[in-house]
Amino acid sequence: MEQFIGLQSPAVRVRVQIVGSGSPVLFIHGGVWPGAAFASLVAELSDFRCLILDRPGCGLSSPLGYSNHEYKTLTAQLLTGVLDAIGIDRTNVVGQEVGAAWALGLATAHPTRVDRLVLTGAAPLLHEQPVPTFLKVLASPIGALIVRLPQSRGQAKSILRQEGHGASVEAGQIPEAYLDWHVALMRETPTMRNERALIRATLGRGGWRPEVTFERHELAQLQGPMLYVYGTNDPESTVDRMRHLVGMLPGAELHLLEGGGHLPWLDDPSQVGARVRGFLAG
């Protein structure tokens, strides 16, 4: 099922795909790979009602200006608006990369709306976390040219290799239909241009803007159950950094997928799906 939700505050139209039935789980994707990137993970969670959001400007959701708003307030307001429109008071949340930061922002601003949290991929949660080189390049003037480059299967595979999924690409584990979907997304929607605008709004001269990330005391106040799934080949962080970060989150546990990349479920959907399913089931 596909649903388009028109919100008044913030004024934006977003797309949500709804799959399955049972306890609700809101999925918030990271950059470059919008909501449908969760497909192989959602397939492992058939006993849940999965709500797969295309963030504003990504996939089939309309863009949203971030520069004139307090970032975390805006994103939390948007997510609660989506839940209200669907008629959900409380939900589990799965967030990947920037989607993980959005999920934590929702949990800090509206703790009664969030049950269990699953975070994946290196996420911009602390100000001192380094900004990935690709994001710096994308935010620079040359990024305006990069987002206009034509896409192909070869480029999609190259992106996956850069994100730590080289072994899965070489083994043919990434479905061809998945690559075709990514090429069509990049060609037929302004997703990359809109993501560049988001990145430029969240970066300052010294790295992440302070209003985008979290203070340690904010993380310490999060009391709900949390699972952080991290692929050890994710180039955007390290295992030591992730252990340090998860140690700041009360009630959080870290699940390492050996050899996994930035989107760990792409490398082993069965293992990641089973771990996430067990955690969400409590």
Properties at a glance:
Rossmann fold; 282 residues; single chain; two-stranded antiparallel ribbon; 8-stranded mixed beta sheet; alpha/beta
Description:
By secondary structure, the chain is of the alpha/beta class. The protein has a single domain, classed as Alpha/Beta hydrolase fold, catalytic domain (Rossmann fold, 3-Layer(aba) Sandwich). The protein is 39% helix and 20% strand. The strands form 2 sheets. Strands 1-2-4-3-5-6-9-10 form an 8-stranded mixed sheet, with helices on both faces. α2 crosses α3 (98-109). The chain is globular and about 45 Å long. The two termini are 27 Å apart. The relative contact order is 0.16.
Largest sheet, if any? 8 strands, mixed
- Biggest sheet, spatial arrangement of strands: 1-2-4-3-5-6-9-10
**Overall structural domain count:** 1
Strand fraction band?
Answer: 15-25%
CATH-defined architecture: 3-Layer(aba) Sandwich
Radius of gyration: 17 Å
Number of distinct beta strands:
10
State the share of residues found in helices, binned by percent: 25-40%
